[in-house]
């Protein structure tokens, strides 16, 4: 039995989207591929209302962490890595692991790295980049990305790098208006596609920085990737054409619904889940004012109910949620309401939880 995915990714993929991957292939140096790839990037620019550079790579979104490390931090430069959970810490690992200098600025899980905290850091120290997780998947904490972007506009030499893996395409994201320099995601979250493609939006300032940074490698060389597209409207390395068929199809659906309406649908699901959790005596792990619209992390420490047993019973009903992440396993549980999910489907899930736990 298929278990409907209410986890923070991968999320549910509709049958008609899956079927797009069964289309016959063509060469990735053909006119057909040029038209497909250009269609995908054109739709992404339209959806995110951006004039920045857009690229789609065959990889996990994590690849962009290495891209940021190898392309945007100078050999004698420094990165400020804002960490408030497991996934935001990976950016620090990527930069530190590349031999570049990275400063770890960490706050308690469940809390947000605020614009005032970042302001204090950038006023005291010069950084090549500041890395922020827009939506920390392990905790359900959402950053105030617009405020952070507005702040860093006052520091043009400091680029804003954003992990938006579990929010791009679900929450609002306006790269040009908010001043992001590299914002990236994966397709298995809010895009409601299978894993395997990474989407990035890159400012001209970021590309200019990449041109002056040496030793960028091959597959993650931003200058070569974007240069190849400008020259041939293709990718320098062999892409996953089948997934690009699915993304092209899905973007047409997303544009028809509209970014604002998609955000409203996700916000409605988040609000409903938050109200449900509080009504039944649970807490919300993310601090107030910084709660995700795509992932709700429910604090189970007061009621201390058995999340593993719940998931086993949900599985018999064809449903699955996520346990708490890392040290919060059993203490939290996470509901991923993203992609094509709706409030109607969410109500069915929450009713099943009520029945199983006798709430």
What is this structure, in a nutshell?
This protein is of the alpha/beta class. It contains 13 helices and 15 strands.
Describe the 3D structure.
By secondary structure, the protein is an alpha/beta fold. The chain folds into 2 domains: 4-10 and 259-357, Aspartate Aminotransferase, domain 1 (Alpha-Beta Complex), CATH 3.90.1150; 19-256, Type I PLP-dependent aspartate aminotransferase-like (Major domain) (Aspartate Aminotransferase, domain 2, 3-Layer(aba) Sandwich), CATH 3.40.640.10. Helix content is 41%, strand content 17%. It has 13 helices and 15 strands. The protein has a 7-stranded mixed β-sheet with strand order 2-10-9-8-5-3-4, sandwiched between helices. The protein has a 4-stranded antiparallel β-sheet with strand order 11-12-15-14, with helices on one face. Strand 8, helix 7 (175-178) and strand 9 form a beta-alpha-beta unit. Helix 2 (31-47) runs parallel beside helix 10 (241-257) and helix 3 (63-72) packs across helix 4 (88-97). The radius of gyration is 20 Å and the shape is globular. The protein starts with a strand and ends with a helix.
SSE diagram, text form:
Blueprint (H helix, E strand, L loop, with lengths): L3 E2 L9 H5 L11 H17 L5 E6 L4 H10 L5 E6 L4 H10 L3 E6 L8 H10 L4 E5 L1 E2 L4 E2 L2 H8 L6 E5 L11 H4 L3 E5 L10 E6 L1 H9 L9 H11 L8 H17 L1 H21 L3 E2 L10 E5 L7 H10 L2 E2 L1 E2 L8 E5 L6 H15 L2
Parallel strand pairs: 1-13, 3-4, 3-5, 5-8, 8-9
Antiparallel strand pairs: 2-10, 6-7, 9-10, 11-12, 12-15, 14-15
